[in-house]
Amino acid sequence: MFKKITIRSSLIGIVAALAVVLAITVATSLFAMRDMKDDTATLAQQVLPNVQMSNDLEADLLRRHLRLNMHVNTTEAAGMARLEEDVRSETAKIEAVRARLMPRLVLEKSKEALKRYEALVPTYRAGMEQVLELSRKGDKAGATAQLRELRPTLAAMEKAMSELATHIASRGDTVIAEAESE
What we know:
The chain is mostly helical and 182 residues long. It is 89% helix and 0% strand. The radius of gyration is 29 Å and the shape is rod-shaped.
């Protein structure tokens, strides 16, 4: 049976088989790429905005603390007033982001991290007000001492924000699994 097959027929058969395999591979790849695109869109809509907000929150915390340091190290009244305004503006911005973030959190670990952060806020804000008051009065040494006392609280706040970002990012795996099961 195979003795009557010519070289031409064999080559045509091989090329046809390769074309079929190539078409199947291309179709499979296109479907996989479509699924990846859907997963990416899901992540972009559900996870990335929350990661961005938590990172912004942490950056704003550090920026506010830097402004507080600058306030303590400034003696010029106009500069101190501008820095105090910046500190208050950063505080309002931080609170607005925190308020927008809480309802968006899904994982219990994320909510717990944000609650740990929230528990530290009154301590930090009270210390911040003391630093500003002492600095305004010209007691730079007292303001510096109070600022040092805020470091552990700030470190705990940063840790909570870092954990929050980690938990939010881990939500990406859950989101993809949920999207694939639908």
